[in-house]
Amino acid sequence: MENLEQALSFANYQTTLTQQRKLLTQKFQEASVIAYNGGLFKLTLEFIGAVKLFQPPYVLDSNGTPVKIDDYDTFLSEIEEAYKMAVESYGKEFSALRLKRNVKSLVEL
Amino acid sequence: MTQGVLLFAHNTEEVNYGVMAIWISERITRYLGKSVSLVTDEYTIQSLKAISIDVKKYFDHVIINEYNTYQTRKLSGETVIFKNLDRCDAYDLTPYDETLLLDIDIAIMSDRLNTVWGHSDDILISNKSADILDRPSDEFNFLKDHGIEFQWATEFYFRKSTIAEEFFNKCKFIKENYDWYSMLYGMGKDPIRNDHIWSIATHELGGDFKHIPRVLRYSTDKDEIVELGTDRVLLAAKVNDKVRLANIRDQDLHIMNKFELTVLASIELGVML
């Protein structure tokens, strides 16, 4: 690329938008993982709901390893808080991205 | 239980890996807040001293490992020399009970790697990756068509334990017998790739290692770094004759364009190369 202006004029809006959306999705997926008692949990609404409902003595983490949950109140508050934060941030950034109508604004220039 | 990040950097005439190690150590301190140690050699220390950098200021431990075996490979269209095969000695060299082994060409821009500490497994490996500009490639999925799964040595967590020791012993054995292994697994024997060593070791030890729960984003050695900030990177590249841009913010990125990265890292650090 000889210069940035040239790059910007040749870059395609739809491709760049798709690219940035993918990055946001990956960011959300990473932010929805928490470490707890030696396990790593990918948080989803289904997971949180099931944990809340059944409160089993062991919960399988994202790698399929059973992790003992000693204190359900703490665990539930941690996973709910982490998920809320992740989804809120994802929602805000996703909405902001939709308003960007050219390549320059998509890549924050 | 001590925890920390271990880096390897051996300068060559073409690339100042020492500067990159300092660059990433600053980011590790900022985003992960962990102790950082460096495995290096006297040549690297002296070449950093020549540009007024006292390497000991930036690391909790500087571990000297004079490793003179070098390899060559094409990077950004140029043939370069590099020395990276002492990575297999990480288990013996690390000063920590829990170690996160990282390549020095990762732009750390988040705290996501902190999820690995205190994990119940002794090893966590990285095997899911994505090209930042969405170019289709199987290079980082399997060692070859119908071959074994590709595993990255770029980011790797281990705890001092029998399992981790066995893993690194296996890595050393594969490295020493790479000709044979390259024939067995059908990949090129030159240069020796740490990722391939890690992939074969994982496979031969049963393949049942848990994963670092994230996608390792990477850019290739031909991608242009348009901007490099402390919390964002803007990249550009030609894909099928069309320009593609990617703006990465608050997410980590493995940057393979070492030439540009070294220059930009030195600017970020305020040193003249």
β-strand amount of chain A:
5-15%
**Structural class of the secondary structure composition of chain A?**
alpha+beta
Q: Hey, roughly how much beta strand do the residues of chain B contain?
A: 25-35%
Radius of gyration of chain A: 19 Å
How many DSSP H or I helices of chain B? 7
How many DSSP E strands of chain A? 4
For the largest interface, the chains and their residue counts are: A-B, 37 and 35 residues
Low-confidence stretches of chain A: none
Number of helices of chain A: 5
**Would you tell me the overall average pLDDT of chain A?**
92
Helix-strand sequence of chain B: EHEHEEEHEEEEEHHHEEEEEEH
What is the 3D shape of chain B? globular
Overall CATH architecture of chain B: Alpha-Beta Complex
The description of the largest β-sheet of chain A is: 2 strands, antiparallel
Distance between the termini of chain B: 38 Å
CATH hierarchy, class of chain B:
Alpha Beta
The neighbouring-strand order within the major sheet of chain A is: 1-2
Structural category of chain B: alpha/beta
CATH topology of chain B: Spore Coat Polysaccharide Biosynthesis Protein SpsA, Chain A
List keywords for this structure.
heterodimer, A: alpha+beta, two-stranded antiparallel sheet, 13% strand, elongated, B: 273 residues, alpha/beta, Spore Coat Polysaccharide Biosynthesis Protein SpsA, Chain A
Report on the architecture of this protein.
The complex is a heterodimer of chains A (109) and B (273). Helix content of chain A is 61%, strand content 13%. The model of chain A has no long low-confidence stretch (mean pLDDT 92). Chain A has five helices and four strands. By secondary structure, chain B is α/β, with parallel strands linked by helices. Chain B has a single domain, classed as Spore Coat Polysaccharide Biosynthesis Protein SpsA, Chain A (Alpha-Beta Complex), CATH 3.90.550. The radius of gyration of chain B is 18 Å and the shape is globular. The mean pLDDT of chain B is 93. Chains A and B meet through helix 1, helix 2, strand 1 and strand 2 of A and strand 11, strand 14 and strand 15 of B.
